[in-house]
Design a protein that fits this description.
Blueprint lengths: L1 H21 L26 H4 L1 E4 L6 H20 L9 H13 L5 H7 L2 E5 L4 E6 L3 E5 L8 E4 L6 E4 L5 E6 L5 E3 L3 H5 L9 E5 L2 H10 L1 E5 L5 E9 L7 H7 L10 H9 L6 H5 L5 E6 L17 E4 L9 E6 L6 E7 L9 E5 L4 H8 L2 E10 L3 H20 L2
Parallel strand pairs: 3-16, 4-10, 13-15
Antiparallel strand pairs: 1-2, 2-17, 3-17, 4-9, 5-9, 6-7, 7-8, 10-11, 11-12, 13-16, 14-15, 14-17
């Protein structure tokens, strides 16, 4: 078929050349020269919450259920809140110490008053909130390779390191044979055997599409042949950019706007001759797993995430461990959450990913979640005033530097 197409193209080109040889030259175009198109300046995206701007908002009214559910998650987050550096620039570890001490002493039934009165509520930036959902899927798998279980699930390789490449960028990569830091293997590289025979196989999945969506979720359960369950937790990523395949299908008109939910994407992939393999390879990001034996999947703070309470956020705009209030156009996502996780696609201010746990309800809710609305952070008192002072100082310094 390709040979016939090429012959047609050559023949058409020859006919076009012959026609041009006998056609009189076109008269020159006269008239005013159209004005040059001047591209509109593109404002740089803010690097963190301080650059995006933060403003005080009035506290919202919580339900008792929301507050009581969020309190244990906030307590679990407190050690990390007090210890880690906050890349959002909004808080310091010492800011959280009084709140964490108080949270430890809150009695049952008093969580609502604690969250409503002991924090200041703040809005970061001016964009509307956008919330998606994730869950803990269960797929068929085996600890050892067997007929029907041939898709390897990999541990984190030892040669995946942080290093500085020749272009000056520092991130996850590997040191090649010349001692140079280069990007790590892509999904296609790994599927083609880049990690074979290295003893990195943690387990084996029955279906590559199912495993792909476990990677997107970041954790999952393997239903083993004997009926037992092996839990998988996120352990690393190859450093490659995450490409959303649902977005690709919408942009290409394969699936309609609003129709690219998880089930429709899976159905389209399974209908392809290659089982969706080429589409999955357009997302070069690859996730490495470890076996979990604790109470649940672990989030970015290395604590178990809680269904209907944990939300993934961008730590450059939301302090990890902080409570987050959502009011969106999907009522089931309204209420108080705790930022305990991150995600490759969760970038920017007011971008969140709500965790729904495991099971059919969790899968349906998370798979169809695409909610817009409002988001507020609950922060230690005095945070916003300090942030605004820092913003003003940075603006003055930038203006002074710009003066001739």
């Amino acid at each position: 078929m390709s040979h016939s197409y090429r012959l047609l193209a050559v023949t058409s080109a020859a006919l076009l050349s012959a026609a041009c040889a006998t056609r009189p030259a076109a008269p020159p175009i006269t008239g005013p020269t159209p004005p040059a198109v001047v591209p509109k300046p593109v404002s740089p995206k803010p690097a963190n919450a301080l650059a995006a701007g933060v403003t005080l908002a009035s506290p919202r009214t919580l339900t008792v259920e929301q507050a009581e559910r969020a309190l244990p998650a906030f307590r679990l987050s407190c050690p990390a809140l007090m210890r880690r550096t906050d890349p959002s620039g909004l808080t310091r570890g010492t800011d959280w110490q009084p709140l964490c001490a108080e949270a430890a002493a809150v009695q049952p039934g008093s969580a609502k008053n604690f969250f409503e009165t002991r924090f200041e509520w703040a809005r970061v930036g001016t964009d509307a909130a956008f919330a998606t959902g994730y869950y803990e899927p269960e797929i068929l798998g085996s600890r050892t390779p067997a007929p029907g279980f041939a898709v390897p699930i990999h541990r984190t390789p030892s040669d995946l390191v942080r290093c500085t490449r020749a272009d000056g960028q520092t991130g996850r990569g590997r040191i090649d044979e010349t001692g140079t830091c280069v990007l790590y293997y892509t999904r296609a590289d790994i599927e083609d055997g880049a990690l074979a025979n290295k003893g990195l196989e943690l387990a084996y999945a029955a279906d590559p599409i199912d495993l792909f969506f476990v990677e997107i979720q970041g954790s999952g359960r393997l239903k083993l042949p004997d009926g037992s369950v092996m839990r998988l937790g996120y352990d690393g990523q190859n450093g490659r950019d995450y490409i959303a395949i649902g977005k690709l299908l919408r942009e290409r008109g394969v699936l309609p706007p609003g129709g690219a939910n998880m089930e429709s994407i899976k159905a389209w992939m399974r209908a392809q001759p290659d089982g969706g393999r080429s589409l999955m390879r357009e997302n070069p990001s690859y996730i490495f797993f470890k076996e979990l034996t604790g109470p649940g999947p672990l989030g970015a703070l290395n604590v178990a995430v809680t269904p209907r309470t944990t939300v993934a956020a961008d730590p450059a705009f939301t302090p990890l461990g902080a409570p987050v209030w959502l009011d969106v156009d999907r009522p089931e996502a309204d209420g108080l959450w705790v930022a305990q996780d991150t995600g490759g696609a969760i970038k920017g201010a007011n971008r969140f990913d709500t965790f729904w746990g495991a099971g059919d309800y969790a899968q349906v809710t998370a798979g169809g979640m695409a909610a817009k609305g409002d988001a507020l952070l609950l922060l230690p008192r005095g945070t916003v005033e300090r942030a605004r002072a820092a913003q003003a100082a940075a603006t003055l310094a930038a203006n002074a530097q710009a003066q001739p």
